[in-house]
Specification:
Layout: H1 9-26, H2 52-73, H3 78-106, H4 117-134, H5 137-155, H6 166-175, E1 181-183, E2 188-190, H7 198-216, H8 220-237, H9 250-273, H10 281-284, H11 287-304, H12 307-323, H13 326-349
Antiparallel strand pairs: 1-2
């Protein structure tokens, strides 16, 4: 019988840095002037920004291994764990829907969008958690492989072009026009967090479950080797199944999970073993609160018409003549992250942790 390990500061730190990166890439001062690494790839390809969301889902899987699985091993009934798991997943999905409803009402969006980041997190958390509880590790690997290969087989016949790929066709048929992108000329949509592409995202989360098991067992070398293998396999696979975040292609799922594994291995070696400061931990222990709070703040500033004046007066007017338009846009995003660092720092100091 395994005993639940102490909380890993490295996991909190990596989760927190991922959330901070989410805020950074979501709130530039000027969307017309953003440094290329802070933008998503236009279609095929990967930028650092394209790694942020899979890193978070990977860490969700790690947390399942560190939190839920040890409780099942120490005698907590699966029924109790499943109810708690599904209830938490439902709350995360509901929170995502509430955020999108708020954006629809406050920002005069043309339509309500049911899919989104929190919705995908909730679905992946539920699926990966149930699999971690009921499926043995070797079968988990088999399931990851089956999902990634099966997804490739499903997408290959229709190709990987925008709007004509299978995930886009399914999302258009079921949810049009309530999607992230909607082309009125084609009468088709594309959603990076849509229905079918959630399947390989679950595989990313399951990879995190397995990485969390290695972390619990102290198998740092295995974590590194698996990360390197996943990166290499993902890159090799991309020659026939391109890296693509919007489609969450199988090559992208492998590549990003491999990068996340290597990041976790480094964080564990540096923070847990060498005693480096757990930079990002305060964001990590209030991750959902920071993400949701930052989104609400953005909606309010935009609805009141304050976002543009804040950027123009506080940054653009005096920085652009000296440094050009890109640096003030980045400075605004960094300042936004800094504001929320102060918020989560204050919450941590007072022992306030928002759990969903």
């Amino acid at each position: 019988m395994s005993v639940a390990p102490a909380r890993f500061a490295s996991v909190d730190a990596l989760r927190g840095l991922t959330v901070a990166a989410m805020l950074l890439v979501n709130t530039p001062g000027d969307w017309s002037h953003v440094y290329a690494p802070l933008l998503h790839a236009e279609w095929h390809g990967v930028t650092p920004t394209d790694l942020v969301f899979p890193f978070f889902l990977f860490i969700v899987g790690v947390s399942i291994s560190l939190g839920i699985v040890p409780r099942s091993e120490t005698g907590v009934a699966h029924g109790v764990l499943v109810r708690a798991l599904l209830w938490r997943a439902a709350k995360i999905v509901a929170l995502g829907l509430a955020l999108h409803l708020l954006a629809y009402l406050m920002l005069d969006r043309p339509h309500f969008r049911p899919w989104g980041v929190l919705q995908r997190i909730g679905l992946c958390f539920a699926a990966a958690g149930l699999i971690a509880l009921y499926v043995k590790p070797r079968l988990q690997w088999a399931l990851i492989g089956a999902v990634l290969l099966g997804y490739w087989a499903l997408l290959a016949p229709s190709g990987y072009a925008a709007y004509t790929n299978l995930p886009a066709r399914i999302d258009t048929a079921l949810f049009a026009p309530w999607l992230y992108q909607w082309d009125t000329t084609l009468a088709r949509g594309q959603d990076p967090e849509g229905l079918l592409s959630t399947l390989p995202a679950i595989a990313t989360t399951l990879f995190g479950v397995r990485a969390g098991a290695w972390l619990r067992g102290g198998a740092l070398r295995t974590l590194v080797l698996a990360g390197m293998a996943a990166v290499a396999l993902g890159l090799a696979w991309s020659s026939v199944f391109p890296l693509n975040k919007a489609l969450w292609t199988s090559s992208y799922a492998l590549f990003s999970a491999g990068c996340a594994s290597l990041a976790l291995a480094f964080a564990h070696a540096a923070v847990d073993r060498q005693g480096w400061p757990a930079v990002g931990r305060r964001f990590g222990v209030n991750a959902i609160a920071a993400y949701v709070g930052a989104a609400v703040m953005t909606y309010v500033l935009l609805a009141l018409g304050w976002m543009e004046p804040l950027y123009r007066v506080g940054f653009a007017n005096w920085m652009t003549p000296r440094f050009g338009p890109y640096l003030p846009s980045l400075a605004f995003a960094l300042s936004f992250v800094g504001v929320w660092w102060l918020v989560v720092w204050a919450m941590d100091r007072r022992g306030w942790y928002v759990k969903v």
